[in-house]
Amino acid sequence: MRIFRGYRHRDLTQACALTIGNFDGVHRGHQAMLALLRSEAQHRGLPVRVMTFEPHPREYFAPERAPARISSLRDKLTELARCGVDEVVVLPFRAALAQQSAENFIDDILLEGLQVRYVLVGDDFRFGAGRRGDYAMLDEAGSARGFDVARMNSYEVHGLRVSSSAVRLALAEGRMRDAADLLGRPYSISGHVVHGRKLGRELGASSQAAGDGFRTLNLRFSHPRPAASGIFVVQVHGLTAAPLAGVANLGVRPSLDPADVNRGQVLLESHVLDWPGDLAVEGGYGKIVRVDLLHKLHDELKYDGLPALTRGIARDCEEARAWFASRHSQTRRQTTRDRI
């Protein structure tokens, strides 16, 4: 998949089938739209192109009221590629774009910049300054300028409209199974493993058989307001052939010293429950890993000192082990029933 920053590129001269949106989370509704776009593009012999925005338009207009982020740009692009998108145009949402009229959006960006021949939008799609542009305007322009326009109604699962807002609510309330149903996959965060304060090596080191304490793999979340936060049972992908069970903290770590080198930065810190003996923790630095957040244990807590924090992490690890054991038992019972 090719990625373009902005729409003025020599390589964007090819006609395309296009859809437009924020695609935060790339949930099942997005996936259905992209499947339809891919089908229409194939019928017309066109590449599948997506136009999205960074930052989210509501972060530009009203940062204090902007929605929490489900996914980073990295994860959004990964999921768009998985859905068969050929090209993604990432438009920086700045003053010039916010002030552009709906008519100029069609002429300058869609026609001159992106060479659209087919445009698919959602039923609530609006564009241009003051959100004056809508489906009717776009359809009229298509009839006059020679490109097809279609819209897709809301996608529902069990009578529930699938939307980024519904995903955010499920994540905020810790309903990870519901979030997975809306996304069509476990909620996950990926990124490069970065260095932290190395404090995990000190926490409870004397109680750990390997003497490693509660070492963590740290990923930065690129936005200050993640849709999920707290302590989670997780699986870590990308270090070994099989995923590694763990427990993770997603947030700002209120129990650590204010002088923390990552102060103010949202981190996902994952502790692997059973670290493979032939894999050094340091070997993870710089690697790209994916962490699936499977079950929420509790919100972030502020502990009174490192001993209390150590005991809290130990309890979280015990609960995570119990959760995995319960899931394994349920899976075995289901397998047995399927064989009978």
| Unreliable residue stretches | 206-211
Q: Which strand order do you get reading across the main beta sheet? A: 1-4-3-2-5-6
Oligomeric organization of the protein chains: single chain
Approximately how much beta-strand content do the residues carry?
15-25%
Largest sheet: 6 strands, parallel
What is the helix/strand order? EEHEHHEHHEHEEEHHEEEEEEH
Integer tally of domains: 2
- Name of the top-level CATH class of the largest domain: Alpha Beta
DSSP helix fraction: 25-40%
Per CATH, the architecture of the largest domain is 3-Layer(aba) Sandwich
Number of strand segments:
14
Number of helical regions: 9
| The CATH fourth-level homologous superfamily of the largest domain | HUPs
What name does the CATH topology of the largest domain carry? Rossmann fold
CA-based gyration radius: 23 Å
Arithmetic mean of pLDDT: 88
Global geometry: elongated
Q: Could you tell me how far the N terminus lies from the C terminus, measured between alpha carbons in angstroms?
A: 45 Å
Query: Structural class of the helices, strands and pairings?
Result: alpha/beta
